[in-house]
Design brief:
single chain; 154 residues; mainly beta; four-stranded antiparallel β-sheet; 9 strands; elongated
Length: 154
C-alpha cells in the first residue's frame, strides 16, 4: 500500500565568485552539486521512481569574503539550475537587491516540477546578475529548499 509523502529537501552550495572588474550583466559563478535526493527519499520510505513532484520552496544566498561583506555592488541577482540533458532554468531571483544586505531571500520564479534536474547524479547552481561596481573575490553560499511529493511505502 502506498501513501503520499510530502517533505522538504535542502541543498547547499558554495559558489566561488572570482573578482569581476567589469560592470553589467554577467555570470558570477557556479557550483556542481552531487545529488543526495536518492538517500533523502529512502530515509522517507520512498524512492526516485516514486517521486511525483519536486518544486522550489525557497532559495537564500549569503555572501562572504575578505573585503566583500554585502551585496552593495549587485543590482539584480538570479539563481539558475541545470543538469545533464536539461536546459538551464531560472529558479529564483532578487531585483532590486537592497544595499547593505549580506543574505538575500530570493523570489521563487519557478512553479514547475524540476524533479528531472535534481534526480540527476549531479546538477549545477549558477548565479548571474547585474553589478554596478567591481566585485572582489568572494563566496556566495546558496541554501535551496525543495518541496517533495512522492508516494511512500506504508
Amino acid at each position: 500500500k502506498f501513501v503520499s509523502a510530502n517533505f522538504d529537501y535542502t541543498t547547499e552550495a558554495e559558489i566561488m565568485v572570482n573578482s569581476l572588474n567589469t560592470v553589467g550583466e554577467q555570470t558570477f559563478g557556479s557550483s556542481v552539486i552531487t545529488s543526495g535526493l536518492k538517500e533523502e527519499l529512502e530515509k522517507n520510505n520512498t524512492s526516485l521512481d516514486l517521486l511525483d513532484e519536486l518544486k522550489l520552496k525557497s532559495a537564500e544566498l549569503t555572501i562572504t569574503g575578505d573585503s566583500v561583506n554585502n551585496f552593495d555592488a549587485v543590482e539584480k541577482i538570479e539563481l539558475y539550475l541545470s543538469a545533464d540533458g536539461q536546459p538551464e532554468v531560472l529558479i529564483a531571483s532578487k531585483n532590486p537587491v537592497v544595499d547593505g544586505t549580506t543574505t538575500l531571500v530570493l523570489d521563487v520564479n519557478s512553479g514547475e516540477n524540476l524533479a528531472n534536474y535534481i534526480k540527476a547524479n549531479t546538477f549545477t547552481y549558477t548565479v548571474k546578475g547585474t553589478n554596478s561596481a567591481p566585485i572582489s573575490t568572494s563566496l556566495i553560499k546558496a541554501k535551496v529548499i525543495w518541496a517533495i511529493k512522492a508516494s511512500a511505502k506504508d
